[in-house]
Write a structure and sequence with these properties.
With about 425 residues, the chain is an alpha+beta fold. The chain folds into 2 domains: about 240 residues, Sulfite Oxidase, Chain A, domain 2 (Alpha-Beta Complex), CATH 3.90.420; about 140 residues, Immunoglobulin-like. It contains 8 helices and 20 strands. The strands form 5 sheets. A 5-stranded mixed β-sheet has the order 2-1-11-5-6. Strands 13-20-19-15-16 form a 5-stranded mixed β-sheet, with no helix packed on it. It starts with 18 loop residues before the first helix and ends with a strand. InterPro entries: Ig_E-set, MoCF_OxRdtse_dimer, Mopterin_OxRdtase_euk, OxRdtase_Mopterin-bd_dom, OxRdtase_Mopterin-bd_sf. This is Sulfite oxidase. One of its GO terms (cellular component) is mitochondrion.
Length: about 425
């Protein structure tokens, strides 16, 4: 079944909210509660799918290359959506899901032309995802739990429900060691923010790979394969890779042999990043309050599993002075489980607020008020640091052909302060 507005293989649905709207909610709702307005970004390579959950099955298997200490006998398991609900402990992870091309417009406009959708700063969402852990499903299917046996194996994640732009199906993969790591909290999500997944977000089941670029969080998941090889899908082998600067065109990348196995690794972990969302675009005006202060706000994402973000600092004079931003931990109307526990935390802090602060895969929302004089052509820089010690370092960022993984410190240019 399909409906108008689902997109097509040739023209899929890809959209993002404006950044100022995005940072109004700690948890990003799929849609506004009082209107039908979409609040979370959409990234698709083909049409949105509408799948009958009662008939859907997820096949878990191994291929012949996977036989090892980790997979002592062939894996072959079929699970219904009800099985995923009833046979496994349900786990909730809060994580930021980010398109690898988030901030591509900045790279394109500030450095040079790139290949890809002209994403601004809103190709990211922060949500609670609930479902069984992938590791629990793999163990039930026969994968050995011991860590030392996972080296060199991969978990391929597939959606075979529809043709996509560059292939007959969509897929990606992650190392088996990542899938089996309890600290990575990879889930087969059945719910988003406490509600059943919507079709546009991958119902009835999707993979959620916390701390990893969104391309690996496969929607409408129907097949899981343990293998010695990465996914052979186009989007694992020929896209979502940070190519070196000498790859100035797809043809040049081919000539240099960059698509050959092992030459350029597929993107996996998100890099440390922060985004200035208020003001929401280059050239905007910022109005000082009665005390001569301007308010600047945004979000920040940790690197991989090294979160949470513990510090964000902001400069409006090209790094001459840095101002520590306040990291917000109070939640909001869309915060479902984390901020409403009703338990007391350390030092009198609400336990929900403590969890918001400590979640290692979540974004943080931040804001800062800076006293300043009226000025023109101001650049606003923001720089995040996570618990693992990762800090943004490049002021303008570096260029790559696909415009992925952009995390420049300079957030906004040409701002007028009045």
């Amino acid at each position: 079944m399909s409906t108008e507005g689902d997109g097509t293989v040739q023209d899929p649905i890809n959209r993002e909210p404006d950044p100022e709207t995005l940072v109004k909610s700690f948890l990003t709702p799929s849609q506004a509660r009082d209107t039908a307005e979409f609040k979370a970004y959409d990234r698709n390579h083909g049409p949105i799918q509408h799948i009958d959950a009662s008939k859907h099955r997820v096949t878990v298997r191994s291929d012949s290359t996977a036989e090892s200490r980790a997979v002592p006998k062939p894996v072959d398991l079929k699970l219904s959506v009800d099985d995923l609900h009833s046979r496994f402990r349900q786990h909730t992870v809060t994580c930021a899901l980010q398109c690898a091309g988030n901030r591509r417009h900045e790279m394109r406009s500030r450095l040079k032309e790139v290949s890809g959708i002209d994403w601004g700063d809103g190709a990211v969402m922060n949500a609670e995802w609930t479902g069984p852990l992938l590791r629990d499903v793999l163990i039930a299917a026969g994968v050995v739990e011991k860590n030392e046996s996972h080296e060199g194996l991969h978990v391929q994640l597939e959606c075979n429900a529809t043709e996509v732009q560059e292939d007959d199906w969509y897929g990606g993969s992650i190392p088996l060691a990542v899938a089996m790591d309890p600290e990575r909290e990879v889930v087969l999500a059945l719910k988003m923010n406490g509600e059943p997944l919507s079709d546009r977000h991958g119902a009835p089941v999707r993979a959620i790979t916390p701390g990893i670029v969104g391309a690996r969080s496969v929607k409408w998941l129907d097949t899981i394969v343990v293998s010695l090889s990465e996914s052979q899908n186009h989007y694992q082998q020929h896209d979502y890779k940070v190519l070196p600067p000498e790859a100035t065109s797809p043809e040049k990348a081919e000539e240099l042999g960059l698509w050959q196995k092992g030459v350029v690794p597929p993107m996996l972990d998100n890099d440390i990043n922060s985004v200035v969302a208020v003001p929401g675009e280059d050239g905007a005006e910022l109005h000082r309050d009665s005390g001569g202060r301007v308010r600047i706000a945004g979000y920040a994402i940790p690197k991989g599993k090294d979160g949470p973000v513990v510090n964000v600092c902001v400069s409006i004079d090209r790094g001459g002075a840095w101002h520590d931003a306040k990291i917000l931990t109070d939640g909001d109307e869309y915060t479902t489980q984390l901020a409403n526990t009703g338990k007391a935390g350390a030092e009198g802090e609400d336990d929900g607020a403590s969890k918001l602060r400590d979640n290692k895969f979540s974004w943080v929302l931040w804001e800062v008020s800076i006293t300043c004089e009226p000025a023109e052509d101001v650049s606003i820089w923001s720089k995040a640091t996570d618990r693992g010690g990762n800090t943004q370092s490049e002021i303008e960022g570096s260029w790559n052909l696909r415009g992925v993984g952009y995390n420049a410190v300079e957030g906004r240019r040409g701002i007028k302060i009045v």
